[in-house]
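Q: I have 193 residues here and want to know how they pack in 3D. Can you give me a structure?
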Amino acid sequence: MLIYLCVGLGVFLGVHSIRIVADGWRSRSIERLGQANWKGLYSAVSLLGFALIVWGYGVARQQPVQLWNPPVRMPQLAALLTWVAFVLLAATYIPRNHFKARWRHPMLLATKFWALAHLLANGTLAGVVLFGSFLVWAIVMFANARRRDRRAGLPYEHGLLSRTLTSVLVGALVWVAFAFLLHGLLIGILPLS
């Protein structure tokens, strides 16, 4: 049953899309509620959506609808793509690195790589719904964010090699921990075993 997963995706991705579909309403709401209250409400609704996604995907995994069987080497490709995702995710939080300087929105790029990796490695209907939704959402959000940056005339910053290497190192270390331990503990699957 995919209903809980779909509702969770609608809530979570919907909240994270407000800036695209209702930016004026968002600005008025922040002004009316105040920044702290807006962030609290935004976080609470996001958390509700995330919980529904996790629960809904868990329920759907109990009776999977297999659409295709991923090729034998797909886990290795997925591992490479998720490594890139973890590096980009680290770059989100490390200032003045080349990834952030070049693309400005490394978290959205990380989401694209993560979603694509999991979409390729999972041939179930629930996997297609979950990871396909995140992939489409990240593509749309990234394009919109880049247009918004161009309209605002934001200058490109220069990245520092040391910060870029730190992003790669931190991303790689977290990827190793996740791929070889945490994915198994949290998701129940060790992808590289």
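Q: Anything worth noting?
A: The chain has two domains: 1-63, 67-193. Residues 67-193 form one domain.
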